[in-house]
Design a protein that fits this description.
By secondary structure, this protein is mainly α. Helices cover about 55% and strands about 5% of the residues. It is built from 16 helices and eight strands. It has a three-stranded antiparallel β-sheet, with no helix packed on it. A three-stranded antiparallel β-sheet has the order 2-8-7. Strands 4-5 form a two-stranded antiparallel ribbon. Helix 4 runs parallel beside helix 16 and helix 5 packs across helix 6. The protein is globular, with a radius of gyration of 21 Å.
Length: about 425
């Protein structure tokens, strides 16, 4: 386990060729789990680079601009849903994670699959129900990693299946249906959704249908696993801090009118700071594990040298670095101001902000994730005053039943309509 941020940065960036692959590549393969066996996280060597190169352009900022009007409409649906919930007079508050999952499910349906889905109008929806099961599945993975740590030979005997067969059947079925509908609807390129991009890629590179489905499933599952948690926890942090919530609302009021412009949103520094600070406190990935692909030596600040052999797993404790008092003053406090005036870039350059990873294998869906979170926050904060329901705990203790950084006991919020 590497506890020094400078060494972590060195491993992810400067010494990348020695730690090219993630340890997950040794735990899953196509036979045990076709989806995660082909996920960029698990792929190695040139296969990883080729898969990343295929997917990344479909999530780039120019394509997000084409989908922005759709995301804006879904953000309005989100606020209308909150308003309807308020009319019921429920004193238990609104489940922020359920709220965020509904929002992301509609975005996924429209921006990835090119399908209109009515998530907010239904009490329960299969997409939300199955997305909630993903976090429970992640806990099983943690158990597997512990067992592998105690008995490394287990990886050779039993590979891990990240998706249960029922979840795989649902998500693959969802994407396959959307793909079939799109294949029968006129010329390629009519839509701006991710699946349309994959159709273009399929024609250009001669991809098989199962490869297209795997590409789409990768993005869909990553969206469900990370974006809802960030949005829910950002609302939690703002609900706990009325002054900073007011500061964000003031920025929204001053910089945005009735017409929300994506280029203006990109220049909203305080909105950015609130999101990045939330991710610092509750990073979607609390740790990552690399595997040594080329023997090397690491030298710590005391001049001690550690020889790393090929195949050695190297644990990088992301949450620990992001919440370390020697790097971040008052690390348990929500202080978006720490990322203003270009400070975020300085943290990143020194390897201290690892929420999206670092180096060549950093998260390639960052733009796609952030634009959804920003648009939803803008609509909610300018429409409602958010406060914490008494059911929500006041500390930051994680839910022990998931490897994701989620508040234990859930996030329950109250919403008061703004004039």
């Amino acid at each position: 386990m590497i506890t020094d941020a400078e060494l972590i940065h060195h491993i992810l960036v400067k010494d990348f060729k020695h730690f090219h692959d993630n340890e997950i590549s040794t735990m899953a393969d196509e036979k045990s789990d076709y989806i995660y066996g082909n996920h960029p996280l698990a792929l190695t060597g040139d296969d990883w680079y080729e898969r990343r190169s295929d997917i990344k352009p479909g999530l780039a900022l120019p394509r997000m601009k084409l989908s922005f009007s759709v995301i804006s409409k879904i953000s309005h649906n989100l606020v209308e849903y909150i308003e309807k919930q308020q009319t019921y007079g429920d004193q238990e508050g609104i489940d922020a994670l359920d709220l965020s999952l509904r929002f992301i499910s509609e975005v996924v349906g429209d921006c990835i699959l090119g399908q209109r889905v009515e998530i907010f109008t239904q009490k329960t929806h299969p997409a939300v129900k199955n997305a909630k099961q993903l976090s429970k599945q992640s806990f099983i993975f943690v158990i597997y990693m512990i067992l592998v740590g105690l008995a490394p030979s287990l990886k050779k005997i039993k590979k891990f299946r990240f998706l249960s067969r029922s979840l795989e059947k649902f998500f693959i079925g969802q994407i396959r249906n959307a793909f079939k509908e799109k294949t029968g609807n006129g010329p390629i390129g009519n839509c701006n959704d991710f699946l349309s991009y994959l159709r273009q890629l399929q024609k250009k590179k001669g991809l098989r249908e199962d490869e297209v489905l795997t590409h789409a499933t990768t993005v869909l599952l990553d969206s469900y696993m990370s974006i809802p948690a960030v949005l829910a926890h950002c609302l939690l942090m703002l609900g706990r801090d009325s002054l900073r919530q007011h500061a964000l609302r003031s920025e929204i009021t001053k910089k945005l009118g009735e017409v929300i412009d994506i280029d203006v949103i990109a220049k909203m520094d305080y909105l950015d700071a609130c999101i990045y600070e939330t991710i610092r406190v509750f990073p979607p990935t609390s740790f990552m594990t690399k595997v040594c692909t080329k023997s090397t030596e690491l030298t710590n600040k005391n001049g001690q040298i550690l020889k790393i052999a090929v195949g050695t797993p190297v644990i990088l404790p992301i949450h620990a670095v992001l919440n370390d008092g020697q790097y971040y003053e008052n690390p348990t406090k929500f202080q978006p101001e720490r990322f203003l005036q270009g400070k975020l870039q300085k943290f990143r350059e020194t390897g201290l902000y690892l929420a999206f990873g670092d180096g060549p294998r950093a998260c390639f869906g960052e733009h796609f994730a952030l634009i959804q979170i920003k648009r939803a926050l803008i609509e909610v904060i300018r429409s409602y005053e958010v406060s914490i329901n008494p059911k929500t705990r006041s500390d930051n203790i994680f839910n022990p039943m998931t490897m994701l950084s989620q508040l234990n006991g859930g996030i329950w919020l109250n919403f008061k309509k703004q004039s």
